[in-house]
């Protein structure tokens, strides 16, 4: 049903997996993240968030620049936590401002010192998101300081 040609059926099936599914359903949700229909992708990003499963990281990272599900993908990556950090870092170099901004949002929450060099490049590159990157750097450094 998650591949049904009718959008409403497909979206409801994906939504149902997010509510009643198990970790065994995560691969199906990952496939739905790559569906051509934006509503299906958005619903899949919302659904997969519940599982906090790092198998979804690559598909979620691909969706950071997708206007249909940027925010949902970023939130799911934040919920997954440290396993998402390294795969998100390359998105900081994106020329897509939506993708780059979402990557900064994710790293602001889960980033460690490993994210610092890439965030510094965003700042020095005069990105649209330079101010947001500076804020992320401050939070990452504060977390690192607290940890030590």
From TrEMBL:
Gene3D superfamilies: Leucine-rich Repeat Variant (1.25.10.10)
SMART domains per the UniProt record, alphabetical: EZ_HEAT
Xref: Pfam families: HEAT_2
InterPro entries: ARM-like (IPR011989), ARM-type_fold (IPR016024), PBS_lyase_HEAT (IPR004155)
Protein name in UniProt: HEAT repeat domain-containing protein
Organism: Frigoriglobus tundricola
Taxonomic lineage: Bacteria, Pseudomonadati, Planctomycetota, Planctomycetia, Gemmatales
């Amino acid at each position: 049903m998650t591949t049904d040609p009718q959008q409403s059926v497909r979206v409801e099936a994906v939504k149902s997996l997010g509510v009643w599914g198990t970790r065994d359903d995560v691969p199906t949700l990952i496939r739905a993240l790559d569906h051509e229909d934006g509503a299906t992708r958005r619903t899949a990003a919302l659904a997969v968030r519940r599982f906090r499963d790092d198998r979804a990281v690559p598909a979620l990272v691909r969706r950071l620049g997708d206007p249909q599900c940027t925010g949902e993908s970023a939130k799911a990556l934040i919920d997954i936590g440290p396993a998402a950090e390294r795969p998100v870092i390359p998105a900081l170099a994106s020329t897509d401002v939506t993708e780059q901004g979402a990557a900064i949002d994710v790293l602001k929450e889960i980033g460690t010192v490993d994210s610092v060099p890439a965030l510094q490049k965003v700042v020095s590159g005069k990105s649209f998101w330079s101010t947001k990157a500076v804020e992320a750097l401050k939070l990452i450094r504060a977390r690192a300081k607290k940890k030590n």
